[in-house]
């Protein structure tokens, strides 16, 4: 723009961020789309993960760009420096953490959402209605009442924190929001199992209670919370003047995928007048599987459920979700009226409740669209079949491990997570090295966890692309690297391992 003498502005289209040549950017966009579809379709031919060279890492220490660069140049950097060194969870050999594999449908939907650039904090526009439809579908999925409310968030860690805040408001009311938790809040006590995700403890910290206000209850041999021990701990806490206010059950624990006895927890919470929340990060969507749904009995009785569509639901990151049985309690926790958020009877500011009344974010992306596309394009029956199959693959892996004398199963396989190790004189050290060797080889990407002081190789089968050939490749690599670790002499073993890793073919 140029300011003229009369105070007006002279139009200058070169100052917009839109392209001067739409045909050129259209052609480049088609190329990018084709490349990403090729990337996904050929993913098994690529390494799952590979270390980032120092030179490549150094490129991302460059200073802030001042002058523009051509889109083709920027895209070349993406293709050469970013794509080859991604996390790898699109790959069927990625089994280290509970990461969904995404889908081409979800990828395309994410592109469409970016084109609309919708802010879902509120106002009267159809993207908010799309999120509302996902809320309704989720309500039906978990058999929640019509007055239930829900909202998309980054992930279950945030959803668990928000559930703790809703439970806090249900006990302290608006005084807690206005004045802080105070002396009454200092007596509030929460409960979960020692197998629960660490974000539950973090939620207590961030909510102002402190992590010491969380009681981590012992588990049974299947890693489920001991309900009798929980009941006893609640009684002890009440006897010394504490005020139990929330129990967090797990539908799929982080280490091995254990499901707490949700029906028993619900009954206990109902008897005690305590908020019952379920961390269902990946396991809650097991209700889509006819085989798994009976094991989640009691989930429909929860006061709130946190889960991720981006795990077993295969929606691209991120798409976490919180659903609350009592929508009014949910709104009381987060609604913050302001003049600039005034609701009108008509126009763009019409409508209520707005999503910003149900969470801490006013600026919110259109996560609902990729979830809507995924559910519409695949349907719950097919998605449920994918979930069932990941558990069947875990059973296959379990059987292979039990049949191999050099391997040892370290925990019961309950869902889609298998924890095992290579037998060795110093198993913790050897298995830690095995996992890193396999990751660096590009064959697979397992992770580790600790179970009763024993380091386990952890294979979480979440990706819909994973097949038996990928599991066979993982086990072959564990045995090969394990043998090299235990048999190679100290002087040459490391060099031989590195050469073998670099020479290993990508699983396929």
Give me some keywords for this one:
single chain; 508 residues; alpha/beta; Aspartate Aminotransferase, domain 2; Aspartate Aminotransferase, domain 1; 7-stranded mixed sheet; 13 strands
State the CATH topology of the domain at 144-365.
Aspartate Aminotransferase, domain 2
Q: What helical percentage do the residues reach?
A: 40-55%
Written as H for each helix and E for each strand, in order along the chain, the element string is EEHHHHHEHHHEHEHEHEEEHHEEHEEHH
Give the oligomer, counting copies of the same chain as homo and different chains as hetero. single chain
Number of strands: 13
Q: From the 3D coordinates, which CATH architecture of the domain at 144-365 would you assign?
A: 3-Layer(aba) Sandwich
The CATH H-level homologous superfamily of the domain at 144-365: Type I PLP-dependent aspartate aminotransferase-like (Major domain)
Terminal Cα span: 56 Å
Low-confidence stretches: none
Quickly name the level 1 CATH class of the domain at 144-365: Alpha Beta
What characteristic shape results from the CA principal axes? globular
Task: Kindly estimate the percentage of residues that lie in beta strands according to DSSP.
Answer: 5-15%
Side by side, the strands of the main sheet go 3-9-8-7-6-4-5
Radius of gyration: 26 Å
Largest β-sheet summary = 7 strands, mixed
């Amino acid at each position: 723009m140029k300011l003229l003498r009369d105070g007006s502005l002279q139009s200058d289209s070169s100052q917009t961020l839109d392209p001067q040549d739409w045909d050129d950017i259209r052609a480049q966009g088609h190329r990018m789309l084709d490349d990403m579809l090729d990337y996904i379709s050929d993913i098994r031919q690529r390494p799952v993960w590979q270390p980032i060279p120092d030179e490549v890492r150094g490129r991302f220490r460059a200073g802030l760009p001042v002058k523009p660069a051509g889109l083709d140049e920027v895209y070349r950097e993406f293709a050469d420096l970013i794509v080859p060194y991604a996390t790898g969870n699109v790959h069927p050999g990625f089994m280290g953490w509970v990461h969904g594999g995404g889908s081409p449908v979800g990828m395309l939907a994410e592109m469409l959402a970016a084109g609309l650039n919708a802010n879902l904090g509120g106002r009267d526009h159809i993207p908010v209605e799309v999120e509302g439809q996902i809320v309704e579908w989720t309500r039906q999925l978990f058999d929640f009442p019509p007055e239930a409310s829900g909202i998309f968030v980054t992930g279950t860690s945030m959803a668990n924190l928000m559930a703790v805040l809703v439970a806090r408001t249900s006990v302290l009311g608006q005084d807690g929001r206005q004045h802080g938790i105070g002396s009454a809040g200092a007596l509030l006590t929460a409960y979960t199992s020692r197998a629960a995700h660490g974000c539950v403890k973090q939620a207590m910290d961030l909510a102002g209670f402190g992590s010491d206000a969380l009681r981590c209850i012992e588990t049974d041999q299947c890693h489920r919370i001991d309900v009798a021990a929980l009941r006893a701990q609640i009684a002890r806490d009440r006897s010394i003047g504490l005020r139990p206010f929330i129990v967090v059950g797990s539908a799929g624990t982080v280490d091995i995928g254990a499901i707490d006895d949700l029906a028993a927890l619900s009954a206990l919470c109902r008897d005690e007048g305590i908020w019952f929340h379920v961390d269902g990060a990946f396991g809650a969507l097991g209700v889509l599987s006819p085989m798994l749904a009976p094991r989640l009995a009691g989930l429909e009785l929860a006061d709130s459920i946190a889960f991720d569509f981006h795990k077993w639901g295969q929606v691209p990151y991120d798409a976490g979700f919180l659903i609350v049985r009592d929508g009014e309690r949910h709104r009381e926790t987060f609604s913050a009226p302001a003049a600039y958020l005034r609701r009108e009877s008509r126009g763009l500011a019409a409508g209520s409740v707005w999503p910003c009344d149900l969470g801490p974010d006013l600026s919110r992306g259109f996560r609902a669209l990729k979830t809507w596309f995924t559910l519409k394009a695949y349907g719950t029956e097919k998605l449920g079949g994918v979930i069932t199959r990941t558990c069947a693959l875990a059973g296959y892996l379990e059987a292979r491990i039990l049949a191999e004398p050099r391997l040892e199963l370290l925990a019961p396989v309950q869902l889609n997570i298998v924890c095992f190790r290579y037998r060795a004189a110093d198993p913790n050290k050897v298995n830690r090295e095995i996992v890193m060797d396999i990751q660096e080889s590009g064959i697979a990407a397992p992770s580790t966890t600790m179970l009763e002081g024993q380091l386990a190789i952890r294979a979480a089968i979440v990706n819909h692309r994973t097949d038996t050939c990928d599991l066979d490749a993982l086990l072959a690599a564990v045995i090969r690297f394990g043998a090299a670790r235990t048999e190679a002499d100290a002087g040459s073993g490391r060099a031989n391992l590195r050469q073998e890793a670099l020479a290993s073919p990508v699983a396929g």
